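From the methods appendix. Each design record in this collection lists the discretized structure first, followed by the designed amino acid sequence. Records were kept in a plain field format so they could be parsed without special tools. The example shown here is representative of the layout used throughout.

RECORD:
C-ALPHA CELLS (166 positions):
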C-alpha cells in the first residue's frame, strides 16, 4: 500500500516506513497555515491506497482518511478519522460507520487553537486536542499498520469531518 499525504493541493507519497516517518516529521514540525488570533493547523490528509492519489485522480479516492492538524506554538494537535461508505458497508464494523475525532480525557486548561477546518476557520475543541507526542504516535501507528484503520493508541469520540465533537 502507498501512503498519500495531501497538504492543500500538494500530494506526497511514501512506500517504505522511513519515507513515511520523514513525511510525518514534516507534518508535525512545519507550520504552513496560521490565522492570527484564531489558530494554526495545516489539516494534512493521510490515506492509504494501492496506487498514488494525485490532484488529477478524479475517478477514485482512497477509502480511508486521517486528518492531522497541529499548532506548533501551543504544542497541541487534533485528528479526524473516517472511511468511505463503501468500506464501512463491506467491513460491517461499527467503528467504520462513524467519523471519529481525537479525544483528550485530560484536556488542557486553555484553548490550544488547533485549526480543524482552515477554510471555515474552525478549531478543535480543547477536549479533542492532544500533545504533539500523542498526535505523532497515532500518525505513526496509522502508517505502521498500513491498512487505513483507526489508530488505537489514543481515545476517540464520534464527531464531524470538520473536527466538531457530536
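DESIGN:
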Amino acid at each position: 500500500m502507498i501512503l498519500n499525504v495531501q497538504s492543500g493541493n500538494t500530494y506526497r507519497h511514501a512506500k517504505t516506513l522511513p519515507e513515511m516517518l520523514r513525511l510525518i516529521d514534516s507534518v508535525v514540525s512545519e507550520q504552513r497555515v496560521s490565522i492570527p488570533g484564531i489558530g494554526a493547523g495545516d489539516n494534512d490528509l493521510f490515506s492509504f491506497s494501492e496506487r498514488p492519489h494525485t490532484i488529477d485522480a478524479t475517478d477514485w479516492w482512497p477509502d480511508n482518511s486521517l486528518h492531522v492538524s497541529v499548532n506548533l506554538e501551543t504544542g497541541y494537535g487534533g485528528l479526524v478519522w473516517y472511511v468511505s461508505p463503501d468500506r464501512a458497508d463491506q467491513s460491517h464494523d461499527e467503528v467504520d460507520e462513524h467519523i471519529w475525532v481525537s479525544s483528550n480525557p485530560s484536556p488542557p486548561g486553555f484553548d490550544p487553537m488547533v485549526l480543524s477546518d482552515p477554510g471555515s476557520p474552525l478549531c478543535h475543541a480543547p477536549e479533542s486536542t492532544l500533545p504533539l507526542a500523542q498526535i505523532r504516535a497515532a500518525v505513526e501507528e496509522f502508517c505502521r499498520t498500513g491498512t487505513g484503520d483507526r489508530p488505537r493508541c489514543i481515545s476517540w469520540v464520534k464527531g464531524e469531518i470538520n473536527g466538531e465533537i457530536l
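APPENDIX NOTE: The CA atoms of residues 115 and 123 lie 4 Å apart.
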